[in-house]
Write a structure and sequence with these properties.
The protein is mostly beta strands. The protein has helices at about 75-80, 155-160, 165-170, 215-220; strands spanning about 1-10, 10-20, 25-30, 40-45, 55, 60, 70-75, 90-95, 100, 105-110, 115-120, 120-125, 145-150, 155, 175-180, 190-195, 200-205, 230-235, 240-245, 250-255, 260-265. The protein folds into 2 domains: about 1-60, no CATH class; about 70-265, Alpha-Beta Complex (Fumarylacetoacetate hydrolase, domain 2). It has 4 helices and 21 strands. The strands form 3 sheets. Strands 1, 2, 3, 4, 5, 6, 7, 8, 9, 12, 13, 15 and 18 form a 13-stranded mixed beta sheet that branches. Strands 10-21-20-16-17 form a 5-stranded mixed beta sheet, with no helix packed on it. Strands 14-11-19 form a 3-stranded antiparallel beta sheet. Strand 1 (about 1-10) and strand 2 form a beta hairpin. The site of zinc ion (ZN) has 7 residues, from loops.
Length: about 270
């Protein structure tokens, strides 16, 4: 199932999505979509009166409100190499603050403090059930509610200068997310992630090239911290990262997850 979170008449609504002739439509309203224990979202009583609307015409919100955003650095071999880094022996974790979330279609603001703001297209997994001390041998589907697209926007110069990544990864608008959640998807089977800037292909990678698979990442993360329903796991970016400039349009896509499109402007 695909669903989004959007705003209409001042209130946030969840909408079930169907693909019709290559276009995404919101066809029904949902209530309590992020159900615990992997239960599917339930239909809203108002569904009967809802007129289908094009996803592209809606005022979308980031599709989930996480308590934390856990990210993995250098999880594709070719990206680790392009920045001159060693391929890590263990997952390299960092956080982005929930305040960095940006809606699909929103404007990425380049902070005055940075001279180089990079895009990083990524697959994001959404936790569906409280998780602690998972094992890589477990069936992790029970713990993953679904998937969406993210852009791990990074102030590359500040990442180097600060020696740790909190500021470089944490500016407001630095975590575009969406446009919708797909609850049935299989990253282990190989999903092709692409990032385009102004229509030009800049990143092309497959999730089969993860250095650390989702079960390994979840085992590693939950050996340290409890993951809550709605928490996000950003799974890393393939090679091809590069700087953004004012006026750019950046688009992250994976077949089945639509396109996450954002524009770039100075602060
Ligand atoms: Zn990243």
């Amino acid at each position: 199932m695909k669903y989004c979170w959007f705003e209409a008449g001042g209130s946030p609504l969840y909408g079930e999505i169907e693909e019709r002739n290559g276009e995404f439509w919101v066809v029904a309203l949902l209530s309590s979509p992020l159900a615990l224990h992997g239960q599917p979202p339930t239909k809203n009583d108002e569904t009967g009166t809802f007129e289908p609307r094009r996803l592209s015409e809606l005022s979308l919100l980031p599709p989930v409100a996480p308590s934390k955003i856990v990210c993995v650095g250098r999880n594709y071999r070719d990206h680790a190499k392009e920045l001159g880094n060693e391929v890590p022996a263990e997952p390299l974790l960092f956080f982005k603050p929930p305040s960095s979330l940006l809606a699909p279609g929103g404007i990425i603001r380049m902070p005055a403090a940075s001279q180089r703001v990079d895009f990083e297209g990524e697959l994001a997994a959404i936790i569906g059930k409280r998780a602690r001390h998972l094992s890589r041998d477990q069936d992790i589907r029970e713990y993953i509610h679904g998937y969406t697209l993210a852009n791990d926007v990074t102030a590359r110069d500040l990442q180097k200068k600060d020696g740790q990544w909190t500021r470089a990864k944490g500016f407001d608008t630095f975590c575009p997310l969406g446009p919708f959640i797909e609850t049935v998807l299989y990253p282990a089977a190989g999903l092709i992630l692409e990032t385009r800037v102004n229509g030009e292909l800049r990143q092309h990678g497959s999730t089969t090239d993860f250095l650390f698979t989702l079960p390994i990442l979840l085992e590693y993360i939950t050996s340290a911290m409890t993951l809550e329903p709605g928490d996000l796991l950003l799974t890393g970016t393939p090679a091809g990262v590069g700087p953004l400039a004012a006026g750019d349009i950046v688009e992250v896509s994976i077949p089945g997850l639509g396109k996450l499109t954002n524009t770039v402007q100075p602060e």
